[in-house]
Amino acid sequence: MNSLNLLLDGFGTALSPVNLLWAATGVLLGTAIGVLPGIGPAMAVALLLPVTYGLDPTAAFIMFAGIYYGGMFGGSTTSILLNTPGETAAVVTAIEGHPMARSGRGSQALAAAAIGHFAGGVIGTVLLVVLAPTVASLAVGIGAPDYFAIMVLAFIAVTSVLGRSRVRGFASLLIGLTIGLIGLDAMTGQQRLTFGSLHLADGVDVVVVAVGLFALGEALWVAAHLRRTSGKPVDVGRPWLGRAEVRRSWKPWLRGPVIGFPFGAIPAGGAEIPTFLSYVTEKRLSKHRSEFGTGAIEGVAGPESAASASAAGTLVSMLTLGLPTTATAAVMLAAFQQYGIQPGPLLFEHEPKLVWGLIASLFVGMVLLLVLNLPLAPVWAKLLRIPRPHLYAGILFFAGVGVYAIGGEPLDLVLLLVIGLIGLGMRRFGLPVLPAMIGVILGPAAEQQLRRALQLSDGSLAGLVNTPFSLVVYAVIAVILAGPPLWKRFGRGRPSVVEVGTGG
C-alpha cells in the first residue's frame, strides 16, 4: 500500500504540465531519432545530456524515459518498413515485420508493434512497482554459470529457429563471435585480431556492426537486384488491425512481458535475448507456423511487447542496485551521477519524488506513445512509396553519419563498408543475419562469464552446471536441440514431409 501511495504521488509529479510536456517531447524525439538507422535511444540520450543541464533532475529523467521508449518504437519502425533496425532490440521485428510491409500490411505491422509496446510497457512497469524488491534479490544471487547458460540458450535458440539450415545458422553465429573477439582480451590485456591497429584495440562498436550488417548490407543487396524488381508503388494496406489480426496478437502481447521483464531485470544482455526467445516461443505456439518467415503478425507482436517490458525491467537493477543492463541504462546512470545522485537501495529513501515520478512517467509515456504513434502508422508506412534508390541513398547517408558520430574516426566508415560487404555476402549465400548480430552482442560477455565460472571451479567443467538455474537452462537447450528432429521422426508431421519430398 505504501508503494501505491508513493506511485500516486509520482503521478502528481509526472502529470504536471511542465513534466507532461517533457515526456511528450522525449517520446517524439526518441521516435524521430530511432527511425534513423544507427542512431538508437542510447545515442539519443547521450546526445541530449548537455541539453538537460539546466533542467530539474525529475524533468530530465522523465524526458529520458520518453526518449527510451520512443527510440525503441522508432527502431522497430525502420525494421518493419525498411529491414534496417534503428537499434539492436528491434532486430527480431524485421524477420516478420518487413515481409508484412512488402506484402502491403505495413500499417498492420506498425499498429501491432505500437500496441505491443503499450501492453509490454504497462505490464512491465506494473511488475516494476510490485516485484522490484524480489527481482532485485534474485538478480544478486545469479552467478557466472547462470549468466553463461542464459547466453548459450540465446545462441542455440536463434540458430535453431532461423533459416532452413542449422549449419548456416551456426556459420552466421561464428562470424558474429569472431567479430566480437576483436579488441583487447578483458582478462589478459592481449590484442586479438586487431592487426596492430590501436583503434581496433577497443573492439568494433555494436552500432557499427548493426548498421553494417542490416542497413548497408540491405542497401547493397537491394542495389544489386534493383533492376529486377518492379517500380510499382507498394500498397500500405488498411490503417488498423482487423478482428482476425487482434485475435492472433493479443496472446503474444501478454506473453511478451513474461519473457521480457525478467531478462531486462538481470544483467543478461538487455532486450536482445527476450526478443529472440519471444520470437521462438510464438513460432512454437502459433497455429500459423507456415506463415513465419513470410509475415506472421505474432512474430511482431510478441517481440515488441517483450522489448518494451524488458525496458521497464532494466530500471529494476539500475534503480535498486545501480547496475545498468543496457547501453541506454548506462547512459542514464551517467546522467544520475551528473546530478550527484547515486542509484542503489537508498535511492528510494533519498529521492522518492524523482524515482516515483520517473516510474509514473513510464505509464504516461506509454499512453503518449500509443496516442501519438498509432494514428501515424499509415504515415510511416507511406515511406514505402518513396522511390527505392532515393530511399536507400538516404539510409546510407544517415547510416554513415550515425556511425561517424560514434567516435569521429574515418576507420569506422571503413569498418562499416567491410561489415556491409559481409552482410551482402551472407544474404547472397543464404546465411541468416540475426545469429551474427547476437554473436557480436553477447559473445564477449559470454566469454567473460565462461572464464569466470571456470576460474571459480579451478578449471572443472562441472562448475558450469553447479546451480539449479543453470541445470534448468541447459535442459531447455536440450529440448530445443533434440525436439525438432524427434518430432519430425516420430511426430504427426512425418507423412506430410515424405509427401512433399516425393512429390518434388
UniProtKB/TrEMBL annotation:
Domain DUF112: 20-438
Family annotation (InterPro entries): DUF112_TM
Coiled coil region boundaries: none
Keywords noted in UniProt: Membrane, Transmembrane, Transmembrane helix
Any Pfam family: TctA
Transmembrane segments: 20-49, 109-132, 138-162, 169-186, 206-224, 315-336, 356-377, 389-407, 413-442, 463-487
Protein name according to UniProt: Tripartite tricarboxylate transporter permease
